[in-house]
Amino acid sequence: MLTATAAAIERTLSYFSLFQYPLTANEIWQLLWPGNGTSCPLSTVVFELEENNDLRNLIIKDGPFFQLASSEPLRSIREQRYRIATTKMRRAKRLASALTWLPWVEGVAVCNSLGYQNTRAKSDIDFFIITKPGTIWLTRFVTVGALTAVRQRPHGEHTPNALCLSFFVTGNSLNLAPLALPGGDPHFAYWIAQMTPLFGRGAIWKQFWDANRWVQVLLPNSSGYGDYPHSFYRQGKRTKPAGSVTRWLDRLAELFQRRRFPAPIREGLARKDSNVVASKEVLKFHTNDRRAAYRSAWKEHTNTFINHHVA
């Protein structure tokens, strides 16, 4: 029989096995999905990994990494993707540095697979951008327009190193809970916890983390981003709120972009779900959102495991 902590370790490794990503003991602790919102010390996780024979029969250790015994060897995959991510992160930093010149941009982060350095060579570089209220459409118009002009946006199914700006929020909508899937959204919680901020004005990333306390309930050992969360991070000075002219330009930018939405975005908006959202506070254009599929795959594996191993 497994203890509650050992079962949580298995659940966590099971989730990351979907992405071929083994974890260190410290990462298991930080990303632990206990299921009941209860935190535990790192020493408890280490003890279970080293001393719980029932758990040790279900996992393997390869160097500093742990993974499910039922998975293919993952250490070399993680190390290879880390090297790829390092190169992509330099490219992401250059864009983030360029965005600092826009006074409406409050924060820039990389997300999805690059957010936790588990990216493939053919993957896009995905960004999450926080803007000042009243400037979200104008910010998208300027940034996406510039990338389109220099042909750096994704096109086709896979565009290696393309810069994808598909998720913007304003400082009024830092809490992303309304965008979570009904019935639980583990992938979205991990997505938020594992993004890597590259630029921020003031304490915007602390404010963002504090606004998403629902993630901290699901991942009680996760510590957030900190004031300077990464060697690539750049701190910026606060700027003035958007004035009347800027807000007027924002309304024009919204009218222009709504008229030019491609069919996948129009179809997504018609479904009125949280995959595709276009408002004055949130622009989210995840037309191929796979959160529900990841949730189903994880639940199926976890339920099968619990039925066989946990009383």
From TrEMBL:
Q: Give the top-rank taxon of the lineage listed in the UniProt record for this protein.
A: Bacteria
Q: What is this protein called?
A: Polymerase nucleotidyl transferase domain-containing protein
Per the UniProt record, the source organism is Candidatus Uhrbacteria bacterium CG10_big_fil_rev_8_21_14_0_10_48_11
